[in-house]
Amino acid sequence: MTRDLASAFRRLRAMLASPAPSGDDDCVPETPRAWRGGWALAGVVLGCALQLQQSGLWTWWGYAAMVLGGLAALAWRQRLAWLLAGAALAFGVTGLRAAALAEQGLAPALEGRDIAVVGRVASLPVMGLQGERFEFVVERASLDGQAVHLPSRLLLGWYGGPQRDGDRPGGWAVAHRSPGLVAGERWAFEVRLKRAHGSLNPHGFDRERWLWERGILATGYVRAGPRDPAPERLEQSGRHPVDLARQRVAGAMVERLGDSRAAGVLAALAVGEQSAIVGCDKRVVRPKFP
Description:
single chain; 3 domains; 8 helices
């Protein structure tokens, strides 16, 4: 098997290598530009895949060196050079972005502390039996009266659910229940955070990578207990009109159709609001293909 792999590698290297020059430069066969671009794109896919397999990040200058090496390799006309150039550029740029995000992460000293934040709801709130989950863009933050640096985007939970006529099944008893958040609203409240983290099982969902893809570097929840300051709704910023429109359409469907299974399914199919669907209805929205 080892001999077969070595033979296949030699054939691939011979295919990628351009013919050696036999005279002056005018006689050297040149790879068409379209094909060079194709090899570079293949290298981009390879470079991104390799960088995602890193168990730890390099320093920024290591990725910068990869980018410079990729740019230098573009000067050659060989297909192998363009493949390696695309891989080096993608590896370096992806690594630089990851390193920049890591520098913006939550400081370990701020984990588990009650931090006062002001910001806005930056996504369509997702309602569950225990409360609401939403993305929050931080405008400013302070701890014990001193300004602190937080990641710009958080994933928060507000336990207790929105205030309704009756007790929500499974709802938690808290002093300040969520009033029903609206996308784009500005709020001031206290939160308790931890760094973005998630377990990864073989062939399972990689939650930590999903958070990083969305630029979310910390998760937590709104402090709404009897001894916590009351959350304060400030204003509607109008900064997230698409999510606000989706929320209004979903709310109108629920208002017209009432608390029925059809309302949840229609809202999920129309605007992607899936918090109102449960059990077997999820197969209507997200069918499983064989």
